[in-house]
Input
Amino acid sequence: MDQAEQLRRQIFKTENKTAKAIAVLSGKGGVGKSGFTVNLAAQLSVRGKRALILDLDIGYGNIDLLIGESSRHSMIDFFQGEKRLSEIICRSSAGFDYISGGTGLSHVVSLNENQLSAFSQELDQAFCTYDYLLLDLGAGMTSDSLKFAMSADELAVVTTPEPTAITDAYSAIKVISFHEKSIPVSIVVNKANDEKTARLTFARMQSAVTRFIEREVSFAGWMPEDPLVSEAVKRQVPFSILFPKCPASRGICRIAESMVSAPSSEAPKQKPSFFSRVSQLFRGGGE
Output
């Protein structure tokens, strides 16, 4: 039995659990959002949690590049009826699974009801074996990424101390909150000089969000500016795997550890699954 077939069997075995869907977004490019997503997934795996990354950076998906692997198929193959979901889920050498976004993700909006139903059913089945689904959304906030973000259980907004990054991250939270205020939002501060700078950055965002959007945000953690992150990108290996003791790795490990050790809150049984909510939004409901 080949490795792919073993993976397919593992994915579709039945377990009585559902993954937590976390949408990872930023207001602008260049803040390290995808690198954060990849390394978070890697560190969740190190801690015994099964993580699946769904690459939704439309037309610019770079998960494959960051981990030095190449996926032969993407979600587009599934939407076009050429592959089953189990055939496009890839296992990374860092321990997590991922689905490449490929290009042309706008096909989602034109799916017919049968395709949407198949999409929801297969991903609901896949969820049974995962603890976390990490949605790597594109920079900014398009109509499609807004729908995925609104369907998530939690939002992780990545920013840096730069004023433009803070302003754009605030704008992304504002757009989502206009449609849906009940989703918990946490802030990740990347490329900070020190913890004081990171916490001041969070405080600025928290103050603006509380005052003008009238909602709460929490501090997920921070990662420092670290030259070894760029080196890891060049080598196409997650920095927390290649340089486990570097400052950035210590930062992502603190975030992953906090996530794993946080008390789990039981979701209401009547709450629809993540992909049921996605299907509803792409059909035009719930907006």
